[in-house]
Amino acid sequence: MASAKKSDVNLENAMVMADPALADWLVAAPLILGFIFGAICLMQRKNVLLQTRIALFGLLLMLIADIGLFINVWQNGTVVMTMGRWLPPFGITFAADMLGATFALVAGIVGLAGGIYALSDVDSTSRRYGFYPFLLLMLAGVTTAFLTGDIFNLYVWFEVLLISSFGLIVLGSERRQLDGAIKYAFLNLVATTLFLIGVAYLYGVFGTLNMADIARKAPALQEAEGPHFAIAIMFLFAFAMKAAAFPLNAWLPASYHTPRIAVSAVFAGLLTKVGVYALLRIFLTMFPADRDELGAVIAIIAALTMLVGALGALAQTDIRRVLGYLVISGIGLMLAGLALGSETGISGSIFYAAHSMIVMTALYLLAGIIGRLMGTFDLHKAGGLYQASPWLGALCLVLAFSVSGLPPFSGLWPKVLLVKGSIDVGAWWLAAAIIVSGFLTTIAMVRVFSFSFWRTRAEGLVEIGPISREGRIKLYAALGLTALTVIAGVYPEPFIQVSDRVAFELTHPQTYIDAVFGGNQEGGGQ
Amino acid sequence: MQLTFYALFAPFIAALFAPMLVRIFSHNAAWILALVPALLFFHYTGFLPEISDGGRVTGGVEWIPSFNVNFSWFIDGLSLTFALLITGIGTLIILYAGGYMKGHQQQGRFLSFMLMFMGAMQGLVLSDSFLMFFVFWELTSITSFLLIGFNHDKERSRRAAMQALVVTGLGGLSLLAGLIMIWNITGVSEISLLLGTGDALRESPFYLAAFLLVLGGAFTKSAQFPLHFWLPNAMEAPTPVSAYLHSATMVKAGVFLLMRMNPVMGDTALWETVLPLFGGATLLVGTWLAVRQTDLKLMLAYTTVASLGLLVMLTGFGTEKAIEGAVLYLIAHSLFKGCLFMVAGNVDHEAGTRDVTKLGGLMAAMPITFGAALLAALSMGGLPPFVGFLAKEEIYYGIASADSWSIFVTGVAIIGNALMLVIGFAVALKPFLGPKVETPKSAHEAPLLMFAGPVVLAALGLVGGLLSGVFHKLFSSPMASAVAGTPLEIKITVIPHLGLALTLSVITVALGVVMYWGMAWLREKMASLLKAIGWGPDVGFDQFIRGLVKGSTALTRRLQTGSMEFYVTTVFVVLGISLFVALYKADEWPQLPAIPSLFIYEWAVILICVIGLFSVIFAKNRLTAIVSLGIQGFGVALLFMLMGAPDLAFTQFMVETLSVVILALVMTRLRLLPQDHRSAYQTFQDGFIALGAATAMTLILLGVVQTEFDPTLSEFFNAYSYTIAQGKNIVNVILVDFRGVDTFGEIAVVMVSGLAILALIRILPKKTNPDVPRSENTEEIF
Amino acid sequence: MEVAIAILTGVFFLVSIYLILSRHIIRVLLGVAMLGNGVNLTIFTAGRITREIPPIIGDDATVPLEGIANPLPQALVLTAIVIAFSFFAFLLVLVFRTYQELGTDDTAEMRDAEPEGEASPPLGY
């Protein structure tokens, strides 16, 4: 009945007519896999064993999809797919450029490592109440946030990953978990709400939600009247808070040490980095002109974040809380590259982000292992681990030096890139902050090592037993991540190639715009 | 050429196998492991002919082409001599460690660390590319951290290890900044290329910064006053470590760096003032502090500090002869200091103490060790016919001259050298001569593994002096040429030539003999002097670490108060300020809007919302608060209704009803009261913050609606909602089709929140001590 | 029209931020709930406001009339309302459980994660 009218409509004006290549579906694969496996796990909620196996299989598939997507983007450039086949900017576009694909890949690794570690860290009650569904959905949310090309859709994935992380953080319902969860939940909700307000403003001014569309309209509109800079600041604020940049970082040290270690580890690897990703996307792809204005401000935030994080790490007695502050310090380094805005600097930021995701996760996993062995996370009571397990000591040192940016581990190279990028433009104080924060981190981590490994065990504490058979699974998860940091430290070339390519794309936003609109600039909305 | 590539990795690979080999062969594994440095030594001797003819060898492979960093090496007189010292002494030290650590439970680990350190040091001297140099530089810091902290049960060891890492690690970071700066100034990132760009560097406005940063690296590593304190503390390490790190390797890395940079950074007034000044101060401080000590290793450690000072002073003095003297002294020092440390280790190992006041008459029991010690002490004292003599003569040739600066430097050198002679003999003679003193262990000669090293090194000090022609041709002349940047030929022999230098030598020896005689008195005086001063950089280090920890604790407690109110307040204060600043900076204030013309009923609905909002704040009981919340929610629903959004109005209505109902349930259950007890001041403050942030957001929104709206998207939806997507309700079509993915995510949020609520309600905490991580609960999984 | 609603959102923000700044967790929660409404109105206003004509296509038409309300913000607000409600429900239960376990509704007394007066970090080596 309606077909008669329908035939009047020229579909080519509204829809993408070509069938998407099969490989392009990889853009949506992490989302689809996360949801399917999350749902299956939920259905098998009571069957803990089966549910665990399904979840791990799902995490593995997600990682494989991420790898496939990464290779695809590396070889063929930005992969774009519009959901429902509506022409961009009308439908919701998923656009995986090198930035998104790289972050998604590292997120997949972190997720799998966390899932494996959880095998012997998360009890069956927590699993019955949704540990793996939460993890899968959080990972799906994080990954899709990296891949979506629509700003409101980005907000939706922020909420998906946020509510999943709420689920993870409260599993166990211990007093301090709830206390941490309160602060985590309210402050993060405020941040995402401010993000949504920013989206509303943006829509009001640009009349569009597609990021590439916004990016191509920005230069002309920023000449016009209207609150453009203030909107950029709104986004800067919201995402800096998500990223735990100083002075909006309080929620992180208040909560990251409270849940199970497996949860803290994936949080450290994934959550703040979504904020960093969003900042890069907003200020490099969408509003490069505002970034140029804000360079100095971001640099100050970056320097303060690095230093406050590193000093905070020195002030802790609980190993997990040391790590929480180191996460913050790392955020400062990632912001430094954004502040510089040069290809060298951005490349350093990207490499550092990937490094930090891997190494911070590994450090939390390691902290879980040593805390379990010592029966405490308290540095006052720590000690005696070197006797019990020298190899664990080696692992700890590798990660400690890696997070401090000492060679030959992965932390060094991004720092060198950032220091070089800073000195290139004469920002010697930013270079100094990078170096000093690395120095302070070294002291903080060497103290942790010295107290828990080298120092003999205090009288009257239980003997440290060997790592149990189940505990070894945790070790494998930590070892896998540590191997990555060693490889990236000894042979950084492929990693720098990737981050250089990301930096090139980010400093040339036209590539992203062209990819989304397929060179068809009349595609709509002009 | 590619053999050098493998050579750079060989020690690390050997380090991997060390623990296994020790498990199989116990301490005899040292014989096998020592083959590695021995082969490396042999490999490097192969370069001698070419280098001694003034050649240079470079080679390498691509490492990080994206960043223009190669894995490349550069062999000239300087690096070759260093490489030979590192591998040659390394061979002896590995053997020595085999004997010294015999039976120690962790001998394998120890040898492994030693080999790693050797690899780092070897890489450091051979690196061509800056970043590779830096990587190996920091690796020496890291491996020395492991070695110094080897006796990790003792807090002193842990402290010393951390001190070394903190001081040299910080220096390394300073060096990194310096190298990157040089890279930016000159545009080259390889040492072999850098050597031709000295003028560009010296004339750059950033020369001073680069100079200071490089100096930061060199002075920390080479323990220059006032950063010398980590070196004596590092004596907590087992003796093989001291013998290796503090004779030819680790501490010489700083001197190596300065010598490397001399052709490009030297020859400026800055260089020729700062280096001699700090070097001279270090020389004097080191020797006087050495006199104070009674522990053999500490005496040697402080003379090492002094020697490093002498080397820095000479490197910066600026004459060719001074550089020749520095080169000769560096080689001589490596030989005799390595030997004397091992001698001290042997004495300690055999007699059970290193306290020089509790030792005596060991000559009969340990004749071979004594012989080695004596030869080394003679070289250290600068007596003919040892290499040490050549060095001292050349030094005096180099620095003695008539101007006041030279006289000053010469005076410093004479006092320093005399005191070093004193210490050398105190270490070499005092424990062995005189009446036999009862020692904790009854002494025997050390085993072969342990006297091989000292004997060989002592003998080399003699052979080098006697065959000075060959010695200069192969080692010292090429090295001096590399340091000076111009070809130099050293001619000095052990045959003394009457002249100023010899006179100064004689004065030095005479002064030394006198002071040796009065050493007990000197020691006492120094002890009381130091006591009077009371503070030193070593104490300063403790104060620094404590201050750092306490300071950051104070800062962090201020920033991270634990109170959510504080966190939230920070957020909104920062929000308000940053939005206002943004509006002000970009001048994006909205234009003054006209008074809106609304219908009466529209005003009424808005009023309802406002009343609802404020009555939530002022509600005195639960019911009022809940009802007020409901009122503002329904007000919003009405607004949606009035503005053409019936779907929204309906949803909002449902959601508000649901919210009010469950809120009522919870609040009644908890008996929570809605009012709070803010003080008047607090009320004002919070109100002000809220007003600020809210006003800023409103101003932006007013600005937004004043822009021209681009309706393209909605026009598209209107056009195709029915024609393609077959839906009459455009909002619904957007939700399920145009933007279906959003809805997908939204459903996920609803699902997950349901599950999370379930988890919250159903999981009850276990009664465990929250500080103790719970046991692994895995029985159901496996 | 937009101006009036924009100012109304300001009042929403003012009241909700004032409530969120409270130490009493239930007031914070009320503030969060009202903040959500403020945001929804903001989205709605940003898409410009027209009176009364809903974006629905008539029975025998293929395209809607001129001058209908902008449908896109409505769709966005619908999504946002549902999400905000889910969060509200979760936070309410979280507050409830926290009150049960910690026995307080005052955030200043919620000091389990970051206890008051904890020991300073060790100063030795």
Q: What is the chain-wise order of helices and strands of chain A?
A: HHHEEHHHHHHHHHHHHHHHHHHH
**Major beta sheet, strand line-up of chain A:** 1-2
Secondary structure tally: strands of chain A: 2
The major beta sheet of chain A can be summarized as: 2 strands, antiparallel
Order of helices and strands of chain C: HHH
Structure description:
The complex is a heterotrimer of chains A (526), B (782) and C (125). Chain A has one domain (21-457, 469-516). Chain A is built from 22 helices and two strands. Chain A has helices at 3-6, 29-43, 48-76, 98-118, 124-128, 131-147, 151-170, 175-206, 211-223, 228-242, 251-255, 261-286, 288-314, 319-340, 343-374, 385-388, 390-404, 412-424, 428-454, 469-490, 493-507, 510-517; strands at 79-82, 93-96. In chain A, strands 1-2 form a two-stranded antiparallel ribbon. In chain A, helix 4 packs antiparallel against helix 20 (469-490) and helix 12 (261-286) packs antiparallel against helix 13. The relative contact order of chain A is 0.10. Chain B is mostly helical and 782 residues long. Among the domains of chain B are: 564-709, Four Helix Bundle (Hemerythrin (Met), subunit A) (Up-down Bundle), CATH 1.20.120; 710-764, no CATH class. Chain B is 73% helix and 2% strand. Chain B has helices at 2-25, 29-45, 48-52, 77-100, 107-126, 130-148, 155-186, 191-194, 198-203, 207-221, 230-233, 239-245, 252-265, 269-292, 296-317, 320-351, 367-381, 387-399, 404-429, 448-466, 468-484, 500-517, 519-533, 537-559, 564-585, 600-618, 622-642, 646-670, 680-706, 712-723, 730-738, 740-762; strands at 57-64, 69-75. A two-stranded antiparallel sheet of chain B has the order 1-2. In chain B, a hairpin with a 4-residue loop joins strand 1 and strand 2 (69-75). Chain C is an all-alpha fold and 125 residues long. Chain C has a single domain, classed as Orthogonal Bundle (Helix Hairpins). Chain C contains three helices and no strands. In chain C, helix 1 runs antiparallel to helix 2 (25-46) and helix 2 (25-46) runs antiparallel to helix 3 (71-102). The chains are: A mainly alpha (526), B mainly alpha (782), C mainly alpha (125). At the B-C interface, helix 7, helix 24, helix 25, helix 26 and helix 27 of B face helix 1, helix 2 and helix 3 of C.
